[in-house]
Amino acid sequence: MQTVLAWCLVGGLLLAAYPSAAWLLRRESQPTLTLLLTLALGTGALSLVMFWEALLGIPFGVATITLPYLALMLPAFVWWMRQPKRLTLKLPELPRIALLILCLIGAAVLFNAAYFPFYRDDTLGIYQPQAQQMFQLGGLIPLTGADSLYLTYPPHMQLIYTFAYVASGWENDYLARVIPALLALGCLPATYLLGKRIARGSSAAGWLGALTLALTPTFGKWASSGYVDLPMAFFYTLAAIFAFRLWDNRRASDALLLGALIGLAAWTKNAALTVGVPVLGVWLAWCLIRRRIVLRHALISLAACAAICAAWYIRNQIGAGFLIPATAWTEQARRTLESLLIFVTLPDNFAVSGWLILISLLLSGVAVVHQFAHRNLDAPEHLLILVWTLPFFAAWWLFVSYDPRFLLLILPPLCALVGVWLARVWTLVPTGWKPHVRLALTVLALIFALYITYSSVDYKDDILRDPFMTHEQKEALVLTR
Question: Is the separation of the CB atoms in 478 and 113 below 8 Å?
Fold first, then answer.
């Protein structure tokens, strides 16, 4: 019974962040963005409450975590209750076939997350053991000086896993795995919104970008893994959306959320600290230079970022002697032409999407050069995506190009860019050809979607042989392979 209540509790706590998201976006009605922001604020607030309670010496418990969390959400809930309610549900403007493909892949990812306990290397070696230890300690794991290393990894996901254990009363990996899977799947609608904004309102660009991401093999491979790369990408992609909103609207609330989302990305994985925070600074500086914002907006954004993640990294510096651990095997970086062109030289990971990404980057680079040559500097769409992605790609190529998984951080923004260029190409197709081209592309997309759906579920033969395996049988299965 406690396990069932734990699922209900986690779902209820995440939904409790909806009024806060609605309040922050109160000047306009954007249901998809509100739901995505709900997921971001809910998970972020939950782990941050746990972090600060641990610093204050308050032991983890269901009541000690949920009551402060709900108190944090209470003011926005009171505001929301006073607002007129409209019982309307506006779904994103997606063709039915695109919606079907996204739902198929999303269902496969969620099934794989909820069916098995943790079994990937880093989850078993880093994230799950840390969550287990925090569950047993009822607080943070103490740092042990210079040999702390993995203990200085940002604890956002580990704390979420710990709460799943606390709420369940046992090490409930199934509930724990579903939460990062939800964050990973949140990259799909976030890519839709980002692509739509880059294309200045074209829903076709949005859903084509979301489809490109969903049909990229590496996305389905890692979305249910319990790793932190795609959850970090979720926050980073949402931050790009609010970077555009800040440019467009000059609102303090957008500046706040831009900084907070970069902070949440850095609270999830330190790659977002080393690249994401400088990118935030560059973008704010460009907005100031172009007089799209005032200094107050930049300070709000930077302060929000610091408020989210600075305490953790200060703790690292004090307790371990460094901000981030030297766990990247930089000597194994492959600074070659092959790794520079990884989107097309690693088809098992990127397939057709890789070629589309490379072509889109080249086209956007040309577009930005053309804009600067003609001093058309008030159309930042392509510039922002290049700023959001290329510095990280350069850092990856120079230091950690031995692992393509790290590129998941920038994969959603790149796929949004692909959607923009695909939508433009579609307008060039002769009208008489469009029905035939649409049919051919639909058939190909469905075939590839079935492949991605199939490959997103692990141990399929074992599931078919015994779909009602016990927890012990599942553990024995995943730990012996």
Answer: no
Question: How is residue 309 written in tokens?
Answer: 């993640």
Structure tokens at 426: 């579609």
* ∠ CA 285-264-257, rounded to 5°: 55
Summarize pLDDT for 3-20 with one digit per residue, the tens.
999 999 999 999 999 999
- Contact indicator for 47, 267 with CB cutoff of 8 Å: yes
Q: Tell which phi-psi region holds residue 88, choosing left (phi > 0), alpha (psi between -120 and 50) or beta.
A: beta
CA distance 156 to 260: 14
Amino acid at 104: L
The dihedral of CA 436, 437, 438, 443: what is its sign? positive
Amino acid at 331: E
Radius of gyration of the CA atoms of the chain, in A: 22
Q: For 346, which DSSP code? A: -
Secondary structure of the chain: what % helix, strand, coil (to 5)?
A: 75, 0, 25
Measured in whole angstroms, how far is the alpha carbon of residue 121 from the centre of its chain? 20
* DSSP secondary structure of 14-33: HHTTHHHHHHHTTTS--HHH
Span 224-268, pLDDT tens digits: 999 999 999 999 999 999 999 999 999 999 999 999 999 999 999
Return the closest-CA partner of residue 313 out of 302, 304, 324, 327.
324
70 phi, psi to nearest 5 deg: -65, -35
Burial class (CB in 10 A: 0-12, 13-18, 19+), 417: buried
| Rounded distance between C-alpha atoms, residue 471 and residue 51, angstroms | 30
Could you tell me the CA-to-CA distances from 73 to 83, 110, 163, 194 in Å, in that order?
Answer: 16, 27, 18, 27
Burial of 274 (0-12, 13-18, 19+ CB in 10 A): middle
Dig out the tokens for 232 from the structure: 């970090």
